[in-house]
Design brief:
Blueprint lengths: L1 H15 L9 E6 L5 E8 L2 E9 L15 H15 L7 E5 L4 E5 L9 H6 L5 H18 L3 H6 L3 H19 L4 H13 L3 E3 L8 E4 L2 E4 L6 E3 L2 H17 L4 H17 L6 H21 L10 H16 L5 H13 L2
Helix pairs in contact: 4-9, 6-7, 6-10, 8-9, 8-10, 9-12, 10-11
Length: 338
């Protein structure tokens, strides 16, 4: 029943987008789309395969987590904007159906565009790719910093709160009352910031390793705010992977440093040391959120691993590192010795 309902919904959306002729046959296959929506690979005889994505109001997690499905249009807008900076960094948008909160984009085959998360998990750790990703993010943030028109177009504070601030920071703060003030103050600061365009979900699972560098996916959390959030959100995964696969901690640490260094080298809209300090302050809060927030990482299942994350994160929240070098120099040797 679910397959037939999905087939009808995808078919109707594709027809309205002008991507499917009346009576034309097609087939769909569900792809891994995370917790926030449905993603299908669609095969149509007369064209290369495409991807159709639909935003859901209730996300697919154990906690009751809801967000405006209109965020599908936000994702399309972010992808189209980034395409004007470098079209290699995003998939091509083929059409959108705002009424159904769906859109279509080009399918990027996994043999040519492997997921960065899978590469990191398998120990295929490309330091140069981490460097390229940091440089690309700096260019996106730099191109959007101080732009009133972009700030107005991406004034999605309610969506960002529903998808990021509440589930990642405020929910975590409620589980750790002793950290409520520190985390709450940081969430309020981010909510009030108007510096540049955040993608909001810069994670290895949302980045493909393309032949010409990173390809960014899943921009439904995009909002004008503090670009420090994007960097902290991504660097967090090197900390997490070191817990999951401690044998590769040294390579994760090198990737962390390469991405950080390339990003800060591209910061032109403010003093690099200022954003460096903000990233370092936010990072341990997001680290803690990936075990105690609404969307914990699925691969840390051992209680000893979760306890290590909690202890490390809480120490850094109580005594914030002055910059990312200080954080890395303290954290990665400790992770390697577990």
């Amino acid at each position: 029943m679910e397959q037939s309902e999905d087939l009808r919904a995808v078919g109707a959306a594709l027809a309205d987008m002008g991507l499917l002729a009346e009576g034309e046959q097609f087939a769909i296959a569900r792809l891994s789309g995370g917790v926030s929506g449905d993603v299908w690979r669609v095969a149509v005889k007369r064209r290369p395969p495409i991807v159709v994505k639909r935003a859901l109001e209730k996300l697919k997690v154990e906690a009751d987590w809801r967000a405006p499905p209109e965020r599908a249009a936000t994702e399309v807008a972010w992808i189209e904007l980034v395409a004007t900076i470098d079209p290699n960094w995003v998939p091509k948008i083929l059409g959108q159906d705002r009424a159904r909160h769906m859109f279509a984009m080009a399918f990027l085959p996994p043999d040519a565009y492997p997921g960065w998360k899978a590469e990191l998990a398998a120990g295929r750790i490309d330091i140069d790719f981490a460097r390229a990703t940091g440089a690309a993010l700096a260019r996106i943030h730099g191109a959007t910093a101080g732009r009133a028109d972009i700030a107005d177009a991406f004034a999605h504070g309610a969506q960002f709160r529903a998808l990021r601030l509440d589930p990642d920071l405020l929910f975590t703060a409620r589980r750790h009352p002793q950290l409520k003030t520190a985390i709450g103050d940081e969430a309020a600061r981010i909510a009030a910031s108007r510096i540049a365009l955040m993608q909001g979900d810069i994670s290895p699972k949302n980045i493909l390793c393309g032949p010409q560098g990173p390809v960014f996916l899943d921009a439904e959390t995009a909002c004008y705010g503090d670009p420090a959030f994007d960097m902290a959100f991504c660097l967090n995964h090197f900390l997490l992977k070191a817990v999951w696969h401690p044998q590769w901690t040294a390579q994760y640490a090198r990737s962390f440093t390469a991405m950080k260094t390339a990003y800060l080298a591209g910061v032109t809209w403010e003093k690099p040391h200022a954003i460096d300090r903000r990233i370092a302050r936010l990072l341990p809060m997001l680290f803690l959120a990936r075990v105690d927030g609404k969307s914990p990482v699925e691969y840390l299942t051992e209680e000893a691993d979760k306890s290590f994350v909690r202890a490390s994160a809480m120490q850094m929240i109580v005594e914030p590192p002055g910059n990312l070098d200080v954080l890395a120099e303290a954290y990665f040797p400790m992770a390697a010795q577990r």
